[in-house]
Structure formats: structure tokens, C-alpha cells
Amino acid sequence: MPQSLAPKAFARHATLSRAARLLNDFRYEQSDPARFYGAIAADTAKMIADWHGTPLDGAVVLDVGGGPGYFADAFDDRGAHYISVEPDPTEMHAGGVEHRATVRGSGQHLPFADDSMDVVFSSNVVEHTSRPWEMCDEMLRVTRPGGTVIVSYTLWWGPFGGHEMGLTHYLGGRRAARRYTRRHGHPPKNLFGTSLFAVTAAAGLRWARSVEPSAHTVAAFPRYLPHWLWWIMRVPGLREVLATNLVVVLRKA
Length: 253
Fold this sequence. Notes:
The protein is of the alpha/beta class. It has helices spanning about 5-15, 15-25, 35-50, 70-75, 90, 130-140, 175-185, 200-210, 240, and strands at about 60-65, 80-85, 100-105, 115-125, 145-155, 215-220, 245-250. The chain has 2 domains: about 5-155 and about 200-250, Rossmann fold (3-Layer(aba) Sandwich), CATH 3.40.50; about 165-195, no CATH class. The protein has a 7-stranded mixed β-sheet with strand order 3-2-1-4-5-7-6, sandwiched between helices. The model is unreliable at about 1-5 (pLDDT under 50).
């Protein structure tokens, strides 16, 4: 697909029905992770194929923070050579999925050579690391010239910023964690200050500007909203609450 057509291709895919379907699947993140992550994986592969601009058949795709490995099949189906890097062995084996091309390693120190990947992406990982922009710099380093970097993450001030803690994160991350612990008898999986951090859209857009001219920003849009609501990314403040999840697409120079 020519690069000039990629935005139109994904915009046609970014419909209200898609948004409703994906938001509904969030209900199953804890109770049925295979359903939730399977849907996200298929959508992610479609999104990356559209924005990369050329077919993924034969492309080397690196998933930073691949977790249990649910994304592998979605990229294999498109003919890509999928590689995942994940620092937490417990997370790697949480889904009972066979790991065919997973490397244990840190996102801040990716164990790959410069300019070695056609596509590098992370999906809902930035908010789980205390040094997200170091990770993003590493993603850019290992991407070949002309390759694609896609960073997608949950915005703290949006309704899903607290993850399983729900809207109580608006009371403050640590207070929300205490409330969750009292209610459920155990701390949340995504513990604020340890495995969950307050990351904003402004920070991601600022990082994208900081890496120019090594890479240029192709697009920045709210992942789970229909294309006719993408204009909210142009409104500071509003985008932090309503965008829910920011996607930044970069092309390496």
C-alpha cells in the first residue's frame, strides 16, 4: 500500500462500531484475557499494517513489552517475522501461550542491533514503566531507516487511566490503590508508582518532537475513538481526558 493511502485506510477502519467493540472488550481484560488480548492483537496488526504503508509480509516486527505473547499469531497471519521482548518472566507465562520468538530483556536496553527492525511498536506499555521515553528512544534506535515506530499507551487522565482501579484514580493513584486493596483484599495488578505511572499525551507528543530530525511524526491520534473525533488531539487538556489512548506513529529518517 502506498504510504499516502495509509491514513485513509486506517481512517476507514476507525469507525464507531470498532470503537464500541474494543471498549466493550476492555471488560474482559481480567476475567478473560485471551478474548481481550486477542481482539487487541488483531486490531493492532491491522493498525500497524495500514500505517507502515507497505505489506508486513516478510517484515521484521518487534513488539516491546509483548507480555504473554497474544500478539504473535496476528502478525504471523500477515506473514511478518514477529519478535517480542519482555522483562518479566511471570508476565511472559501468564497466558499459557507458547513463546516462539520471545526474548527476555529491558525496553530501556533492547538487546538488538541498531537499524535492525522494519517495525517497532509498543501497545499499552508506556504507562507501565518509570522511564518510558528512554524505552521509546531505544525503539527508534533499533528501527531501520525508513522503518516505522508506533507507540500506543493509555492516558492517565482518561477514564481507563487507573486500569482495574476504575475511576478512583481521579482521587490520586496511591489513594486509589489503597481503596482497591481494602475492597478486594489484595493490591491491584497495576500498582501506582510501581507498575503504573501517570503519563500524559503532552509528554508523548513532546518526545516525538524531541527526536526530530532523526524521525518525523506521521500521525498522532486517539486509538479507540472513531476518526471523526480525532480532532480532539489538537486541543490540550481535552485530549488528556477524552482521547483515552494516544497513538504516535513515526517514520525513521
